[in-house]
Predict the structure.
Amino acid sequence: MRGIAKAFGRNRALDGVDLTVAPGEVHALVGENGAGKSTLMKVLSGAHAPDAGEMRLDGEAYLPGDPQEARRRGVGMIYQELSIAPHLSVAENLVLGAEPRRGPFQDRAAARRLARETLAGLGHGDIDVDAPAGTLSISRLQIVEIGRSLALGCKVIVFDEPTSSLAQADVRRLFDLIDGLAARGISVIYISHFLEEVRRLASRLTVLRDGRSVATHRVAEVDDARVVSEMVGRDVAELYPRSARTPGEVVLRADVPGRGSLEVRRGEVLGICGLVGSGRTELLRGVFGLDPGGRREVAGRSVAGSPRAAWLAGMGMVSENRKEEGLALALGIGDNVCLPNLRELGPAGLVLPSERSRRAARWIESLGIRCQGPDQPIGRLSGGNQQKAAFARLLESDCDVLLLDEPTRGIDIAAKARIYQAIDRLVTDPVRPRAVVMVSSYLPELLGTCDRIAVMGRGGLGAPHPVPGTSAERLMAEATA
């Protein structure tokens, strides 16, 4: 790809990007949210037409008119949110868009045979090709998506944040699978915010910033600090800020049947870790009142079992499922940020657009939300910027207790640093320190941000460990016991 440019109205998403990938190479693409990674890959995969520049595939001119033509030419795309039809069988999904035919009719036997051969070649011949795709786990659905690209003979496969919803064991299996694809001469472009994943998989990486390709490095010859500074255009001095903290009185007590009990003090961050499926999200949902049952006290007062009662008592929650639970995608950024506080936006129940925009603009600047302004529909933002807007809602509501479920999933390093800084400011506020409960699958994040960490297991929530006396190995041993 040479000099690729793409604009949407006045927003220049790509401004002369170069990218070269060799056969059998795993090449990482890194950058902040909004840097242009996804747009570049949509150009490559035929979803967007470039405004300028040229592409060549195996030395021949390449300009697909749509994703189907791109797959026929040899480029497959594995999106972060999988493109699976859950009501169709595995075989039907695997050949979707390129169904074998016998005359005017689909050849279902040939489709099933191709699906079996492809999955066996990936080391997953045990997947039932006749099973509805909706019955498979996320990791197995990824295998089906990869199989779809291989069945079409793709020579280049793009993985866009493929580990965001996978357990550790599934991540390891995916990495082994990508190693196998490269060994077969297939080129892999790997997009990730986790530099440790990049180091594990890639031989080279390209950094994008503000729609431009700023550097390409051999992974073994560059350190993380340089990559991060190239991504953000400045040094990120300290990813996990930690001001002096003095936990005060207990501000939240909660008991969720079957999940456990917790106490959180003002001025502290309580982390919750555990394996996928251990009940971490269900615990937070119970505390916030999204699931029935349980008891909650905020500042010594009992709180009724509903999300509205939780908001009124000073609790706020960021859901890990931002698109279905956390945001109203058709509304603007300002509407989403101010939803719990509409009565404060004008007299006599009126909502003044100027006040809504003013409040939203404060958080857009503070958290670095990349957007066209407070009125832009939030569904048009990148996933990371949507997550920052969901977090901004809690800041705008001035919550006493913040329940954060995977608050930095899908967010780039610079954006994570902004959220960690905001959390640190909240719990060290000299006038009214807040309390934070944070669920995360990423142990370095919990160890860097939290004061205490409790492990969620089959038996519920365990006793919290002070961070200075624990380690990732100890927490993982407890989670897998």
